[in-house]
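Figure 6 in text form: structure in, sequence out.
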């Protein structure tokens, strides 16, 4: 199992607009993707203006196929067209379970 940590740092003052875009445009995509989605989080202390989400996959092939389907999805494209202008930076990290951690 691999996990993907995606962090979007928004332009200052754009969090409320970003949340509105997520609520109005991302819901259809997220509902279809729930088997891979671990969770969405909003930065608080030390992570201001950040939307952080974690995804899980069996392997990198499944991850790449998931994002290929996602980028071809009309609902996702409509969401991304409104969301991307609000983003200052994006950071992705791939992670695996530590041997002593809980098993998925």
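Output sequence:
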């Amino acid at each position: 199992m691999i996990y993907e940590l995606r962090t979007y740092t928004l332009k200052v003052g754009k969090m409320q607009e970003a949340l509105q875009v997520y609520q109005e445009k991302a819901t259809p995509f997220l509902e279809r993707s729930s088997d891979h989605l671990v969770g969405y989080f909003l930065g608080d202390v030390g992570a201001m203006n950040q939307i952080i989400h974690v995804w899980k996959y069996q392997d990198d092939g499944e991850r790449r196929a998931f994002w290929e389907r996602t980028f071809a999805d009309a609902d996702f494209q409509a969401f991304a067209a409104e969301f991307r202008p609000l983003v200052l930076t994006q950071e992705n990290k791939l992670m695996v379970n530590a041997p002593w951690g809980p098993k998925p």
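Caption detail: Helices lie at 15-32, 60-72, 74-83.
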